[in-house]
Amino acid sequence: MIQDLIDRIAQNVGLDPSVAQSAVGLIMNFLDKEGPQDQIGGLLDQFPGVRDLMSQTAATEGEGGGGLMGMLGGLMGGSAGGLMGLVGKLNEAGVDMGSVQGVTQELIGYAKEKAGPEMVEQVLGQIPGLGQYLRG
């Protein structure tokens, strides 16, 4: 259940649960938009409740936002711009730069447990620049 992931991130990264929830929604919406369309649905299906969370997050984030990072990301375009925009949205949601990598590492670890490492690596490997960013 998606609440397990939210609780895990809140505890292990030291975030308020509402911030962890926003972070999961933002990241999953990003993966849904930027990930390989023939594979992302199968990955999302491994997270019961995530589609509701994604809808809630999309309704509250709107088209704007992202602050300076989002603006720079929009100027860059493509997946790299999307990644910069995501980081900006995470910052606005209360995830400081020092916690972004912790959140993504917890999410990836959880995804590998639920969907298997092969599926997760295939999806992440098809988003240019994402793998290097997530792994530091």
Short description:
With 136 residues, the chain is mainly alpha-helical. It is 80% helix and 0% strand.
Please provide a written account of the structure.
This protein has 136 residues and is mainly alpha-helical. The chain has a single domain, classed as Globin-like, CATH 1.10.490. 80% of the residues lie in helices and 0% in strands.
Shape: globular
CATH architecture tag = Orthogonal Bundle
The residue fraction in helices comes out at over 70%
Mean pLDDT: 83
The computed structural class is mainly alpha
* Uncertain ranges: 63-80
Number of beta strands: 0
- What's the Cα radius of gyration? 14 Å
Order of helices and strands: HHHHHHHHH
Largest sheet: none
- CATH fold type: Globin-like
Continuous helix count: 9
- The CATH class, by name, is Mainly Alpha
| Proportion of strand residues | under 5%
List the helices and strands and how they pair.
Blueprint: H1 2-14, H2 17-34, H3 37-44, H4 50-61, H5 67-76, H6 78-92, H7 97-115, H8 117-125, H9 130-134
Helix pairs in contact: 1-2, 1-7, 2-3, 2-4, 2-6, 5-6, 7-8
What key attributes describe this structure?
Globin-like, mainly alpha, single chain, 136 residues, 9 helices, globular
